[in-house]
Amino acid sequence: MKQIFFCFLLLTTLTSFSQEKFNIGDTVPEFKLWLTNGEKITKSDIQNKVVVFKFWFTSCSPCLVDIDLLNQLVDHYKDREDILFLAPALDRKDIITQFHNKTTFKFKTAYSAMDVSQIFNKLQVYPSYFIINKNGQFSYIDNGSKKSEFKNLRQALKRTLNE
Of 42, 55, 107, 135, which cross-links 85 as Cys (Cβ 3.0–4.6 Å)? Predict the structure, then answer.
């Protein structure tokens, strides 16, 4: 009976830990993303940059709604070398390539990013948005409302850039 209780307690603890969400100010975990342009991006590649992440997939209707607004955001900051816009997608590279052939999305797009999404986006809600400051810490997290507000993302980016 003690062994069963211990196993239950261990399983409950591990499950609770795996569902832990990040908070503002937490350090970004290690990650590796493969971009459709052949680049690889890791945590060390984003040092001293502000990074806007959008986790998504191509068949997610809510994920597609704000692409025009996000493109405008990229255009607004196009002359800044200290900002990186990344869109890790769950889709395979060929599906992302087909999507990009039909739709302009100016974020650098990563493909087959389920492993990274599971680290950042514990609840697996899409789309999910994160902003990382130049110190490698979360400064904005939107991963659970299913009702993202572009205005909040834009304001958080401005705030992060002024830190």
Answer: 107
Q: Rounded to two decimals, what is the model's pTM?
A: 0.83
| Residue 63, phi-psi category: left (phi > 0), alpha (psi -120 to 50), beta (remainder) | alpha
Q: Which fold has domain 2-161?
A: Glutaredoxin (3.40.30)
Distance from C-alpha of 133 to C-alpha of 50, rounded to nearest angstrom = 5
pLDDT of 69-119, one tens digit each? 999 999 999 999 999 999 999 999 999 999 999 999 999 999 999 999 988
The answer for residues whose C-beta is within 8 angstroms of residue 1's C-beta and 6 or more apart is: none
Residue 115, C-beta contacts closer than 8 angstroms, at least 6 positions apart: none
Q: What are phi and psi of 30, to 5 degrees?
A: -65, 145
Query: Where do the structural domains in the chain lie, given as residue ranges?
Result: 2-161
